[in-house]
Amino acid sequence: MERKKKLAYLSAAPRVSTRMDAEASGPRAHILGVVQSFKLLGWEVKAYIVGDLMPRALIADSEFWLNQSPLLRLGADLTRLVMGLFHGFKVWRQFHGKVDWIYERFATLQSLGWVFRKEGVPWILETNGLFYYEAKIERKSIVLSRVARILELWAYRHCDVLICVTDELKALIVEEAQISPRKILVMPNGVDTERFDPDRCTPIHIFDGPTIGFVGALLSWQRLDILLEALAELLSVGIEFNLVVVGDGPMQKAWKTQAEILGIEDRTRFLGRIPWDDVPAFISGFGLGYVGNGPLEIGKMYHSPLKLYEYMAMGLPVVASAYSDALEMVIPGENGYLFKPNDKEDLKRVLGQAYRDRSYWKEMGVAARKQVLEHASWISRVKKAQNEIERILHESKFNRNQEEKKASI
User: Fold this and answer.
1) How confident is the model at residue 1 (pLDDT cuts 50, 70, 90)?
2) Residue 1 domain flag
3) How many independent structural domains does the chain possess?
4) What is the mean pLDDT of residues 380-409?
5) 213 - beta bridge partners?
6) Angle (CA) 188 193 198, round 5°
7) Residues 335 and 398 both lie in one domain
């Protein structure tokens, strides 16, 4: 009988947790999807998730408090550095000599898996963004940004395989870290198609009429501002949409105020954070799902939006800005609509078309779910990634052997 391969899944970020009360639901879904898929592919998986070990009271609303004071941010930065060393030592003791691969989700100012490379265990590092940049510019949650940049780029250079969520992020990292693109593979986000299944939940309807919905963190790049403006302007010409927003974040207050100023507060509901188990039912109560990502301050959009896959898995046509994930998944007029990023007039155009097509939304939603089942389940994503990881590791081992032969001649 063939021995089961063993994988250690690591995450050092204190806010990233797989608990039901996790503050960041997107990372939770991502971790669970990857871990479960490796198990289904025959791996024995042991996880070390720092966020699961943190008392909930210490990390609740941490981003809000970090935004209030540079001294708090500095204290948090120093704590992260110390925690990285502490948990790195614990991980080494726990998994030393016991695993075939280390698979780590990168966290700002800390990484845990690098020490295993000394004993020949491949270190596979997954990154979902340029974290030192996002933490400094987009979230304003760190002070030691130069230290964060040095540590992040060092990790990208020294890991055996680097996984990025988009080609855009891969290109940025190749430029920033000056590393070979051959060690990087792109694995977009996926979805748990069993959890997100319209046949397994009862829809929760907030409004009776045509409704567009959003689920996620309320951050500026999600561009709910142009959606609110578009809905208000369309209302004046008889195109009547409702909007349901699930999630919280730094832009919640501003966007609620904007809805009031635009006079559409009676057609808009900001529900805040809801229980994780209820998310599919709320999505099922939408008519359309909104994925409006715009460029970050860096001038590019390199994220892979989980919500795109979750909406489609729940049988919803989507209204999405035309970035890589949406361009791969959305067939305009068949399972959703694409608009030019940051372009309110183009958004109004596709919303108008969607409104006229509203009698076909259910049919389009069936096509959307079919697309996800065929191309974007977590198991299909991870199976493809596993094959690519093995290819990269084999190639790098071959190259090292060739270099050693040349050196010995």
Assistant:
1) low
2) no
3) 2
4) 75
5) 244, 289
6) 130
7) no
Amino acid symbol at 265: E
Q: Is residue 393 part of a domain?
A: yes
Spatial distance between the Cα atoms of 391 and 146, rounded to a whole number of angstroms? 34
The answer to whether residue 161 sits within a structural domain is yes
Residues 6+ positions from 19 with CB-CB distance below 8 Å: 28, 51, 52, 56
Contact 304, 147 (CB under 8 A): no
331-365 confidence digits (pLDDT tens): 999 999 999 999 999 999 999 999 999 999 999 99
55 & 172 share domain: yes
Q: How many CB atoms lie within 10 A of CB 250?
A: 16
Q: Domain range holding 91? A: 6-190+377-408
Instruction: Show the tokens assigned to 259.
Output: 């809805």
Residue 149 and residue 212 in one domain = no
How many C-beta atoms lie closer than 10 Å to residue 352's C-beta?
A: 15
Cβ–Cβ under 8 Å, residues 230 and 337: no
Q: What is the CATH number of the domain that holds 342?
A: 3.40.50.2000
Q: DSSP readout, 178-204?
A: T--GGGEEE----B-TTTS-GGGS---
For residue 44, pLDDT beyond 70: yes
Burial of 98 per CB tally in 10 Å (0-12, 13-18, 19+): exposed
